Amino acid sequence: MTELPPVTEEINDFAVREHRSLWLDAWRRLISNRTAMIGLVVVAVFVLSAVGAHFFWKYDAKMDLNYSAKLLAPNLRTTEKSTQIHIFGTDKLGRDIFRRVVHGGWNSLRVGLVAVGISLSIGGLLGLLAGFFESTDLNRRERTILMAALGLGLGALPAWIARQPFQAVLFGLLGVASSLLHGKTSKKSSPRLVEYGLAGALIGGTSGFLVGPMVALVCGLVGLSIGLLLARPVGGKVFSSIVMRVMDIILSFPSYLLAIAIVAFLGPGLEKGMIAIGVVGIPIYARLARSAVLSVTQKEYVLAAHSVGEGHGRILFKHIVPNILSPIIVQATMGLANAILSAAALGFLGLGAIPPEPEWGAMLGDSYKYLSSGAWWAVLFPGLAIMFSVLGFNLLGDGLRDALDPKMRV
Amino acid sequence: MGRYILRRLLSVIPTLIGVTLVIFLFQRLIPGDPAVAMLGEHANAENVARIREQFGLDKPAFLDRDALAEGDLPGFFDSQYVRYFGRLLQFDLGESIHRRIPIAETLKERFPATVELSLLAMSIALVVGIPIGILSASRRNSFLDGATMIGSLVGVSVPIFWLGIMEIMFFAVIMKWLPSGSRLSSGIVIKPITNLLLLDSLLTGNWVGFKDAFLHILMPAISLATIPTAIITRMTRSSMLDVLQEDYIRTASAKGLSERIVLFRHALKNAFLPVITIIGIQAGTLLAGAVLTETIFSWPGIGKWVYDSILGRDYPIVQGVTLLIAIIFLVVNLLVDLSYALLDPRISYE
After folding, report:
1. Is A22 on the interface with B (CB under 8 A)?
2. Is A214 near chain B, with CB under 8 Å?
3. DSSP summary character for residue A251
4. How many domains in chain A?
5. Which segments of B30-157 does DSSP mark as H helices, in order?
6. Rounded-to-integer distance, Cα B292 and Cα A345, Å
7. What are the beta bridge partners of residue B95?
């Protein structure tokens, strides 16, 4: 018997290559992409200059005024006419435009960041839940919570009409009952309809009677229909379609027209602009997150997690969220670009930063009336700042899309 | 298919009601007393009373529970929102606070100006965007392709109001080639038929008027067209690239068809579907962009009107025009969806 020689074949398997995480991989691809690098550098320049200026270069917008130096053209050397160097020139109040552009960056970027934060956190969470519960059966506890919320929400109407908050609580309990009793009296749905309809009419009607006969009638009718709705426990699809219908309504406005309209009514101000732009952006993230979740919930690793009995919260945040992050990161980067543009539009229309406060859009809006006097520098530089910062985020977003695409992984 | 179309049509109704609700709720965002906010601090009592009456501000917002408690069932439904909705059903958009003219009336004058501008801008976007998109897809990674990609990225990044200002500076202030605002020079008259000046002057054979109107609309149309052009170019290119990788394209090339026939006969038809969707979405960009573009070019359309009304706190106008734009946007997207159903046989509608 001859002994077999030990196997000394070289292992040439992709599975055993050097371990790199997805993020490290993506980072390497990002820095090897020339246009993405340009975007990253541009974004870094804007962010660093804005943050640096805010903390280390004192600027008091209210005190900045110098009529003797009004509307001076850019100069790189001092002359007798302009005793100071203004590389971007000065505006109608003699303020140094370079200084205001750098400080304006803090405001413009802040609006973008906060607005995207609002849209991303609200929209992302709604989309996540909508997508997950649309494709996964609710467990008993979740169904009970949903039914209780539904009962409370619907019950708020008769409770408000009759000024009796306890009615809403009763309807909430009716929802809980419907959820808990479901399955015991299965299949026969028509008697349940009668029972719940009656219960609803009684809750609304009898307590409404304390206020007046008409109130009793209306609350009874409303209660009846709520009872009928609550008779059969609903699945996560209902939650999802309610959320998505609301998103559709927001989406049926051209996005920054809605932002303009909201701020027009709220009154001008940076914070209000942030809120308006943020709210308008919610549906984009909700839709994106929902469709991304729907595309992974049937994947084997999610099904496996279900079958070993992991909880829904754990599945959602441990298995699903990490796998849908990349499209959301890309969208958020591009969304920053859009938010900066919208913020500038609001500022230009006089709905953004309150005057002396520097902000790129507002600077344009201030200065464009002086165009006929030839003061091109007062509109050129704030505009270039908007354009390059937006371009930077767009380039970075494009690069991230390629870098985070798992198909590109080698 | 018929059922799909019907369902899609019906689905617009709840959205539309939601839209009116959102626009109605705008009023609630006004800090303080809306009547005083609309008229200013020094308004006289008579005007404040008129505004309260017009908006039913003494009524509750949605339902009147006090009336119900007193046994008044019809009074229960007599609320601001129900009144507002009822007026909308009669195509009554309300009236301007300061000028006291019905909004619908001013709309008739101003809307054609915006339509003309948007249509021209969209035509520019299509005529420029689609051919460039096709060309750069067919010459992938060429110099032209790179230039297109950079150009379209810059196009979506440039603030259109700034572009408009720069155009005015160069073409009107420095070169003095083009007029910087309004629709016509003073002294030029075009007999109104459709109120689309370009069309009217052509119909009446008024060449002087046509030239003047054209010179006036050129700059606003170009700046309004920038973003749609960039986006349509990108979309055409990427959708063409997807289609060009399909097997049937390779087959068509392999059997010796010329590149032109492959591109236009085989590829374009299928690449066009996503582009149509984008066109629908861009209609919204155009209408919303009109607020900025018209403001810069003093174009007497609805966008400028919204801007002036925001400054003058004439809230009913802002509400009315926003509603109108939302409805147009909804209808355009409905048409896009329906055309999708007709154009793409691969999608089945149960």
Report:
1. no
2. yes
3. H
4. 2
5. 34-39, 45-55, 65-69, 73-76, 80-89, 103-138, 143-157
6. 7
7. B102
- A95 lies in some domain: yes
Asked if A327 reaches chain B (Cβ–Cβ under 8 Å), the answer is: no
**Domain end position, chosen among A234, A254, A287:** A234
Cβ-based neighbour number of residue B173 at 10 Å: 15
Dig out the tokens for B101 from the structure: 């003219």
Alpha-carbon gap, residue A303 to A296, rounded angstroms: 10
**Token pair of A274 as six digits:** 């942030």
Instruction: For residue A31, tell me if it sits in a domain.
Output: yes
For chain A of 410 residues, list the mean pLDDT of each consecutive stretch of 10: 56 58 80 85 90 81 70 70 71 78 87 93 92 82 82 78 76 77 57 74 74 76 78 79 88 85 87 91 91 87 86 86 86 90 89 84 82 77 91 89 67
Distance (Å) from the alpha carbon of B319 to chain A's nearest alpha carbon: 8
DSSP class of B297: T
Residue A379 sits at the chain B interface (C-beta within 8 Å): yes
pLDDT, tens only, B145-203: 889 988 998 888 898 888 888 888 888 877 778 787 777 777 777 777 777 877 778 77
Going by C-beta distance under 8 Å and a sequence separation of 6 or more, which residues neighbour residue B202? B210
Residue A372 has what DSSP assignment?
Answer: G
Q: Residue A205 and residue A213: Cα distance in Å, rounded?
A: 9
Q: What is the spatial distance between Cα A136 and Cα A294, in angstroms, rounded to a whole number?
A: 10
Nearest to A267 among B31, B165, B284 (CB): B31
Long-range pairs, B9-18, Cβ under 8 A, ≥24:
B9/B334, B12/B330, B12/B334, B14/A245, B15/A245, B15/A248, B15/A249, B15/A252, B15/B330, B16/B327, B16/B330, B17/B85, B18/A245, B18/A246, B18/A248, B18/A249, B18/A252
Strands (E), chain B: none
Q: CA triplet A380, A384, A385: central angle to 5 degrees?
A: 120
Domain boundary among the residues A177, A210, A234 is at A234
Identify the bridge partners of residue A86 per DSSP, sorted by sequence position. Answer: A75
C-alpha span between A91 and A70 (Å, rounded): 6
Q: Which amino acid is it at B241?
A: L
Mapped onto helix, strand or coil, the DSSP state of residue A95 is: coil
Enter the tokens of residue B252.
């068509």
Residue pair B158/B226 in contact (Cβ under 8 Å)? The answer is yes
Give the range of the structural domain holding residue A218, as residue numbers without chain letter: 138-234
Does one domain contain both A284 and A345? Answer: yes
Instruction: Report which listed range, B47-56, B192-201, B209-218, is most confident.
Output: B209-218
* Interchain contact A261–B (C-beta under 8 A): yes
Task: Check: CB of residue B134 under 8 Å from CB of residue B240.
Answer: yes
Chain A residues within 8 A of B285 when measuring between CB atoms: 254
For chain A, what is the total number of helices (H) and then of strands (E)?
Answer: 15, 0
Exposure class string for A393-408: b at 16+ Cβ within 10 A, else e: bbbbbbbbbbbbeeee
- For A387, which of B72, B158, B325 is closest by C-beta distance? B158
How many CB atoms within 10 Å of residue B101?
11
Residues A293 and A355 in one domain: yes
- CA B308/CA A45 separation, integer angstroms: 37
Query: What is the Cα–Cα distance from A281 to A283, expressed in whole angstroms?
Result: 6
**pLDDT at res. A82:** 63
Using DSSP's 3-state secondary structure scheme, residue B95 falls into strand
CA angle A100-A104-A106, nearest 5°? 135
**The pTM is what?**
0.84
DSSP secondary structure letter of residue A252: T
The alpha carbon of residue A394 is apart from the nearest alpha carbon of chain B, in Å, by 7
Give the nearest partner residue to B65 out of A160, A249, A257, using CB atoms.
A160
Is A247 part of any domain? no
